[in-house]
Amino acid sequence: MAVETVLRGITWNHSRGFVSVVATAQRFSELRPGVEILWEKRSLQAFADAPIQGLAQEYDLLVIDHPWAGYAAHSGVLLPLQTIMPADFLRDQAANSVGSSHASYVFDGSQCALAIDAATPVASYRPDLLERYGLEKPQTWRELLDLARQGRVIMPGIPIDTLMNFYMLCATQGEPPFVHDEWAVSDDMSLAALEQLRELASLCPPEIADWNPIAVYEQLSRRDDYVYCPFAYGYSNYARAGYADALLAFDDMVDIDGGGRCQTTLGGTGLAISANCRAPEVARDYAMFTASAAIQRSLFFDSGGQPGHRSAWLDAEVNRRSNNYFRDTLPALDRAYLRPRFPGYLHFQDYAGAPIRQYLMAGGDARGLLAELKRLFEEAKARYQA
Prior knowledge:
Blueprint: E1 5-12, H1 15-31, E2 35-42, H2 44-49, H3 52-58, E3 61-64, H4 69-75, H5 87-95, E4 106-107, E5 110-111, E6 114-117, E7 121-125, H6 127-133, H7 141-149, H8 159-172, H9 187-202, H10 213-222, E8 228-233, E9 249-251, E10 269-273, H11 280-291, H12 293-302, H13 310-314, H14 316-320, H15 325-334, H16 345-362, H17 366-385
Parallel strand pairs: 1-2, 1-3
Antiparallel strand pairs: 3-10, 4-5, 6-10, 7-8, 7-9
Helix pairs in contact: 1-12, 8-9, 8-16, 9-16, 16-17
C-alpha cells in the first residue's frame, strides 16, 4: 500500500530516547498501512536547551522536557491534548503516573504532552567493585563524603545537573524552591546547600565538570576506580545485561542528616503534537499507542525505553530484565521535586547552572552567587509577566 501520511518527529540522541520511539513508530506503521513516522534526533544538551517553537514549525511530533509546559500553554505551539484525546485515556494516564510525571505536562489546564518516559536522579553503583574493595553503599550524607574521600565517587557536574542538585538539597532539607513560583528559599538554606554541593564536588575528580549523566554512567561501567554515583538522572539501560561493559545497580539515595532520603528533581520526557501537525488525528493515535500500558511495558521497554506508565515500573518481567531498576528506584520518582513551569522559567534554568558549577569547581563568593541567582530569577519572572 502506498504511503499516504508521513509524520516527522524529533527526539534526543540516546538509545533510551531514540530507539524506543523508532520501534513504536515502525509497529504503528505496520498496524496502519499508509502511515510512516520518521524520527530524527538531537543532542541531550539541545533537548534541554533548544526552544520548541522552531521545532514545532518543522516537526509533527516532539519529545519535550516538562518545563516547556507553561510556554506551550501560553503560546499555542503544541496541541492541547485534552481537546483531541478521550478523557478516559487521559484519566488512565493520570492514575498510572510515576510520581508527578503526568501532571508535569499540565499547565493552566492544558495537557501539552504524554509522559512516555519517567526519570529523576537516583543512586547507582558497581556491585562487583564494592565487593572487590570491601566497601558498603553509603546510607547517609556523611558516609557519602567518606566514600568520596577515598576517590570512589563521581557525579554529573555540567550546569543543568548542578542546578538540579541545588534544588534537591533545598527541597530535601525542608525548603523546596519556587513555592507558588516565587524564590521561597531562605539565604541560610541556599548557602548551606551550595556549601554541601561544593564540598562533595571537591572530593570528586575535576573532570565531572564536563560530565552529564550519560558520561557518568559510561565511566562507572567502564572503569574500576569509581564505584558509586550519589545522584544522576537514571538510565535503566545501564542496568540491563549487554548494554555496557559492566552492569550497574540503581537504588534510592542517601539520607541527609535526618532530613530523609534525597528528594531529587523530576525529569523524564513527554510526547507532544505540534499545533502545525499535518495529520493530528494520526499523531494522536500514535501518541496514545506509544503511551499505552501494553506498549510501555513491552515494545517500548524492549527497545531501550524507560517507560512513563506505572504498570511498567511494577511489572515483574520488566524488573527481572533490568536488575530491578524500576522497583528499586520508584520511591525516588514518587517523591521527586517538580520544577516550575511558568513561561519564563527556562530563562533561569538556562543561565543559573553555570555560575553554580563555577562555584563548585573554584569556590568564591557564595553570597554574590546567591544574589546573581535571585537576579536571574527576577528576570525570568519579568519575562512571564511581559
